[in-house]
Every structure is written in C-alpha cells, then in structure tokens.
Amino acid sequence: MADPSECPTTSGGLLPPELHAWMLMLAATGAVEQELRSVVKERLDVSHDEFLVLCLLAADPGQALRMTQVAELLGRPKTRLTYQVACLQHAGLVTRRSVCGDKRGIEVALTEKARGLLKDASDALAETVKEALGRFMGPAQRQALCALMPDFAAETARE
C-alpha cells in the first residue's frame, strides 16, 4: 500500500470534490478491510463477508434480524447471503428460524458461541482497524472525510 502522504489531494482533476473525496475514502477503507480479513480468518475462522453478517447481528445481540434486512443493510444479494448464513449456521455461529406468521420470512440470530468468539476477538479486531486507519488515513483521506461529513468535522474540531 502506498504511503498516505503520497496520495492525491481532494482538489483538482476531472471529478467533483465530493466524488474524489469518496474515492479516497473507499481506497482507505478498502486497505483497512484487507488488513482485517486475515485477522478475522485467524480469530474467527470465517470469511470477511460472514464477519460482516456477525457484526450486524452483534449490534443488538439479543435480537434476530430478517434475512431481507441483513441483505439490504449489507448491500448483498439474498442468494449470496443465504450461502453465507448457511456457512455460519454450519459453524454453530447463527441460528435460522421461520418468522411467526410469515411462511417466507426467515430470522437470523447469533448463538452463544458466536457471542463468545466475538467478545474474545473484539480487542484484536479493534486494534487491527485502529492501526490500519493510522497507516492508511493520511492528510488527503482526513480532508476527504471532512469534505464528505462537514458536521462530523465541526464536532471533531470542538472536542
């Protein structure tokens, strides 16, 4: 990965500033995601896409989510999600059940095993993200984030 200080700035070029800023942010988050993949595989023994499903369910671990909600929130096709959830279920990390009163609806929830694994791995995963962001978020990416989220930038400046 290139040194963040070598990354292009958010001004100039053919793209509008907002689109250029978005592309810089995607590049930085993509680099972080790449670093996270190996830690996810090592700590949880799941794919990155399966990890995203677990994270979504972990946001409210006592609640089940409908498969359609998960697909929409992750921007994944339902057929791909069905495969990922089947892999997670086979590993004992999620449960699937029919939604009461809806023959076609399926809910997914974390198992105790998944909760324990996520709890045990969360510090290492968070540290990986923090370190990677520190390496890949140079001045251009920070400027891009501020350009995309001016309210966030103002709040950060006040803190």
Short description:
The protein is mostly helical. It contains seven helices and three strands, in the order ααβααββααα. The protein has a single domain, classed as Orthogonal Bundle (Arc Repressor Mutant, subunit A), CATH 1.10.10.
The proportion of strand residues reads 5-15%
CATH fold descriptor: Arc Repressor Mutant, subunit A
Please identify, by name, the CATH architecture.
Orthogonal Bundle
**Number of H/I helices:** 7
CATH class call: Mainly Alpha
Topology:
Blueprint: H1 17-44, H2 48-58, E1 65-66, H3 67-74, H4 78-90, E2 94-99, E3 102-110, H5 112-136, H6 139-148, H7 150-158
Antiparallel strand pairs: 1-3, 2-3
Helix pairs in contact: 1-5, 1-6, 6-7
Core attributes:
single chain, 159 residues, mainly alpha, Arc Repressor Mutant, subunit A, 7 helices, 3 strands, 65% helix, 11% strand, globular
Structural account:
Residues 18-154 form the HTH marR-type domain. GO terms for molecular function: DNA-binding transcription factor activity. InterPro entries: HTH_MarR-typ, MarR/SlyA-like, WH-like_DNA-bd_sf, WH_DNA-bd_sf. This is MarR family transcriptional regulator. One of its GO terms (biological process) is response to stress. With 159 residues, the protein is mostly helical. It has a single domain (15-131), classed as Arc Repressor Mutant, subunit A (Orthogonal Bundle), CATH 1.10.10.10. Helix content is 65%, strand content 11%. The chain has a three-stranded antiparallel sheet with strand order 1-3-2. α1 packs across α5 (112-136), α1 (17-44) packs across α6 (139-148) and α6 crosses α7. It is globular, with a radius of gyration of 19 Å. The two termini are 31 Å apart. 19% of the residues are buried.
